[in-house]
Amino acid sequence: MLLFARQYTHSHADAEDIVQDAFTRFWKRRHKFKKNPASCLFGCVRWSALDWLRKNRRRERREDHAATYESLVNGADYFERTIENEEMADTTQRAIESLPEAQREVVVLKIWGELTFAEIGHALSVSPNTAASRYRYGLAALKQKLKGIEKWSVKIEN
Q1: In sequence order, what are the residues at sequence separation of 6 or more whose Cβ sits closer than 8 angstroms to the Cβ of residue 68?
Q2: CA distance 11 to 23
Q3: Diameter of the chain by CA atoms?
């Protein structure tokens, strides 16, 4: 199974994590895998590996996005901030703070907390659909408030 997981990653430690996650998945759903547990276990390894890949891709995109944002806000030199960039950062912060609390919570949990709508719904005691709609409305409000910033090329993604 470790060798099977290794085909999805270049790191032995990451492959071990994938196999560990697969065993956890398998154990939680063992009542469903009565016919051929070995093939089901390999299926769990596969799904764990695919989830791991998706998670890493999202993390890389977020890091790239953060680096882009950081370079826009701070300029090429991280220690030298221009008045224009300070203004953009302040405008963005004020726009986020001006959102209704329910929308702001969901936007922060989704973007910076990296939670799914189901997890957000559970954390806030609302349905996942409510969390998703609050997120949509929050992003729409942010887009509207930040519309005037022409030099800021970072897009707020849905």
Answers
A1: 154
A2: 19
A3: 66
Tell me how far apart the alpha carbons of residues 115 and 147 are, in angstroms, rounded to a whole number.
Answer: 26
What token pair was written down for 101? Answer: 């609390």
Query: Does the predicted TM-score (pTM) go above 0.70?
Result: no
Digit-coded pLDDT (tens) for 55-69: 988 888 888 877 776
How many domains would you assign to the chain? Answer: 2
**Across 39-100, where does the E strand assignment appear?**
none
In a domain, 110, yes or no: yes
Give the residue numbers spanning the domain of 129.
82-158
Q: Are residues 108 and 148 in the same domain?
A: yes
Residue 69 inside a domain? The answer is no
What is the per-residue pLDDT across 77-114, written as a single tens digit (0 to 9) for each?
A: 544 556 766 777 778 778 888 889 889 888 888 887 78
